[in-house]
Amino acid sequence: MAETAAIHDMNKPMLGTLLHQGVLRIVMQRPERMNSLSSEMMAALSAELTQAAENPEVRVILLGAEGKVFCAGHDLKELTAARAEADRGRATYTRIMRQCSDLMQQIVRHPKPVIAVVTGVATAAGCQLVASCDLALATDTATFCTPGVNIGLFCSTPMVALSRNVAPKHAMEMLLTGESIDASTAKEFGLINRIIPRDYLDQVVQKYAETIASKSSQTLKVGKEAFYRQLEMPLSDAYDHAANVMVENMLARDAEEGINAFLQKRKPEWTDG
C-alpha cells in the first residue's frame, strides 16, 4: 500500500481508504443509508482492519464517515426483513449480533491504535463503534445516543462498550433515556477525547494521528494489549501482569534504543522490535 496513494477497492464500495505518513484513513461511504452497520458494512470494515493489521506501513487507523450521520447503528430494514423467516429472524439476529460483537472486539484487540473521527450523529451500535475505538475525536456538531429504549429494543450490546468508557450512571442515563448528548457532554462523560472545529478537523486529526504514528509500533501494540487486559483484572493481578509486560518491554530493542536516545539527547530510530 503506497504512501499518499488513494485507494478505492471496487469490491468494497462501502469504504474508501487513504494511507499517508503511516496513518490509514478508513471512511464509511454509505451516507444514503446513514452508514448503518449492515452485515455487508461490518464485513467490509472487518476485512479492512485485518489488512491493516498485516500491513507494516499502517501505524495508526482513523475511522470516519461521509455525510451527516457517522453511523446509525444496525440496519433496521435488514433486521426487520428477517422477521419473514420461519424462525421470525432468530438465526439472522444471532448471526448479525455475533458479527457486530466480533467487529467491536477486533477493534479492541487490533495491534494498531484505532481512532474514531465523528462529524455527525453516532447512534446505537454507531455509538458502540465510537466507544470501542481506542480514542475518539469529534466536531462540536457531533451527537451521541443509545436510543434503543425508544423503540422497545434496549441497547444491550452498545451497553458493553459504553459502560467500559463512561461512568455507570452516565451510561445508564444514556441507555434509559435514549436521549442524545452533544459533543461537550460526551467529552465530559469520557466518551470522546477532544472536540475540534470542523474547519480545522482534517489537519488537526492528521497531526494528532501522526504524533502517535511516530512512536514504536511494537511499543504501541504491547501497551494497547496490556491496557485492555489489565482492565478486567483484580488490582493485584493487574500489577503482576503490568510488571511482567514492563520486564519484557525493557528487553525489547526499541526500548533499549529509546532510552539510549533519550540519554544521548537524540531522536530514536525505531526498528519496531
UniProtKB/TrEMBL annotation:
Q: Which UniProt keywords apply?
A: Fatty acid metabolism, Lipid metabolism, Transit peptide
The record's annotation in InterPro entries points to: ClpP/crotonase-like_dom_sf, Enoyl-CoA_hydra/iso, Enoyl-CoA_hydra_C, Mitochondrial_ECH-domain
Record-level Gene Ontology MF annotations: hydro-lyase activity
Which Pfam families does the annotation name? ECH_1
- Output the GO biological process annotations, alphabetical, semicolon-separated: fatty acid metabolic process
Question: CDD domains given for it?
Answer: crotonase-like (cd06558)
Keyword match Cell wall biogenesis/degradation: no
Give the UniProt family note: Belongs to the enoyl-CoA hydratase/isomerase family.
Function in brief: May play a role in fatty acid biosynthesis and insulin sensitivity.
- The entry's protein name is Enoyl-CoA hydratase domain-containing protein 3, mitochondrial
The species this protein was found in: Roseibium aquae
